[in-house]
Predict the structure.
Amino acid sequence: MSKKALKLLPIFDSAKKINSMSPPKHVTGRYIKSDFKACWLFLKQYDCSEFTYANYRNRIEVLCQWSWLVRKKSILKFNKDDLEEFFKFYQHPPITWISNIRQQKFKEKDGERIYNENWRPFLKKKNSEHYESSYHIMKSTIVIANIFYKFLVDEEFIQTIPLRKVRQINRFIIRNTETKRIKRLSAIQWKYITETARKMAENDPRMHERTLFIVSACYSLYLRISELKHHDTTMSMTYGQEKTDKQKC
């Protein structure tokens, strides 16, 4: 196994850069381009929501890295044994795949988008000696893998979903017994915010009616900031043979 083949570099950029992505050049294999195309088409569905896109991309990123660098196999050829080994890997990744500091995948240099060689797929918690794959991380990974392979079946890349053949899949999801405090505003805090926004709107409707709307929407509809953000959906696709106006997210 060559040193070049084990070079760990990012594959998929941010949602804003999805139209300018191309298959990676630092890995070799006849199946790289077809795998990349399948993943690109899958992620393209979610490029109108940065949060959802990033969540899906991070899981697909590791799946591709492990498939190409470790398993030496196309993700389109995976069976239940491959996925079981992948989930085991995701639970306990090697130290060379773990970073102590959150890193950007790509950097700008002289007007070009380049790999950040310090990036790693897994992030160790602050003040923690070891990487811990939580219940929520593993559950999300399995759910996204299932959605991804269902997409591959729907788009006729593959015929069956290998994840459905994995027995006792819950064994990969270890629930943490530690109670985790969820960060959220209290009812009193929300009341203060909404009342303040309402007074601002009354005093200056032109400037702050939008403020009141945003606050009310977040509170009443449980929206994320990314779901309220303006998204430009007029960009044309530069990768692949066809253009598509269909947005599924």
Remarks:
- The first strand starts at residue 98 and ends at 99.
- Strands lie at 98-99, 106-109, 112-115, 122-123.
- Residues 187-225 form one domain.
- The chain is about 40% helix and 5% strand.
